[in-house]
Amino acid sequence: MALSALRGAFGFLTRIPVGHDERAWTAFRESPVTFPLAGYAIGGLAGLALFVPAPDPTVAAIYVAWLYLLTGITHIDGLADLGDALVVHGSAETRREVLKDTTVGVGAVVAVAVLVTSLASAAVSLAVDPRAGLGLVIAAEVSAKLGMSTLVCVGTATHEGMAATLTAESSPRDLVLPTVVALPAAAATWPHPAAGVSLVTGLVSVTVVFRVARRRLGGVNGDVFGAANEIARVVALHAGVIAWTQL
């Protein structure tokens, strides 16, 4: 069952060809702990790009390209949809309708541009010290995935769909195990506390996304999950870089 759940997590969170079937999906949505577990592997794989022998800006570009080749663009698409929805005036229902609209608006363009630019600029600093950078990439990825676990355990879906199938299976008490599993990521830059700062800051950013989604949309949906993942990753990386260089 645990292996099926992990396979479901990799199928949902990455483009790694692990196969898709109902058993793996069911096991995954009943196991929030698989989010941070997958985060360790995704972070480790993504961070390998930092060791490419090239100038730092080039390494940063390779990291961003490799990250999205590895994880796909489903989650960043969620950020784009959320960006469009949040700039719309009106009720929560109106904003939820915008989420379903396939038209790309200014909010989406700005959100994605800011995110990718921020991700690349963080990666330039990570490339200066690849070993420390790898630790921060792992911590950031685990933080983002713990954030997704948090949404699963405490969020309320706005409608029937992917988010509803995830949130219906878990409650706040189910967040304990994912948190315990994520804590070792804080030691990824030991003895320096930068990874711990990264882990905590990314999770804080998810709580902000959650509060905004609850107030502006009435709850969470698949786009909120994707946006939270992307925002937490980049916030955690920048927080980690700041901690690494300033503490």
From TrEMBL:
For this protein, the Enzyme Commission number is 2.7.8.26
Which membrane topology describes this protein? Multi-pass membrane protein
Q: Top enzyme class of this protein?
A: transferase
Q: Where in the cell is it found?
A: Cell membrane
GO cellular component entries? plasma membrane
Instruction: Show the Pfam families listed in the entry.
Output: CobS (PF02654)
* Entry annotated with the keyword Magnesium: yes
| Keywords for the protein's UniProt record, in alphabetical order | Cell membrane, Cobalamin biosynthesis, Magnesium, Membrane, Transferase, Transmembrane, Transmembrane helix
Q: Which family does it belong to?
A: Belongs to the CobS family.
Protein name in the entry:
Adenosylcobinamide-GDP ribazoletransferase
Which organism does this record belong to?
Halovenus salina
Q: Kindly list the organism's lineage.
A: Archaea, Methanobacteriati, Methanobacteriota, Stenosarchaea group, Halobacteria
